[in-house]
Amino acid sequence: MSRWSVRVDPAWSVQAWRDAARLGLQHGVAPEHLDWLQEGHASLLDAPPLASLPPAESDGKTIPVPKSFVELASTCLCHSDPQRHALLYRMLWRIVHGERDLLTNPADPDVLRAMALGQAVRRDSHKMKAFVRFREVPGEDNAFIAWFEPEHHIVDRVAPFFARRFAGMRWAILTPTRSVRWDGQELAFGPGSKQADAPVEDAREELWRTYYANIFNPARLNTRMMQQEMPTRYWKHLPEASLLPTLVRDAGDRVQEMHDREAQAPQRRIPEQHIPLRGPATANGDSLDELRTAAAGCRRCPLWEPATQTVFGEGPRDAQVMFVGEQPGDSEDLSGHPFVGPAGQLLNRALQALGIDRSTLYLTNAVKHFRYERRGKKRIHSKPQVTHINACRPWLLAEIEQVSPKVIVCLGASAARAVFGPGFNLGRDRGRWHTLEDGTRGFATVHPSWVLRQPVGAAQEEAYRLLLGDLERLSTHAGNGRTE
Ligand code: SF4
Question: 322 C-alpha vs ligand 1 centroid, how far in Å?
Answer without folding.
Answer: 20
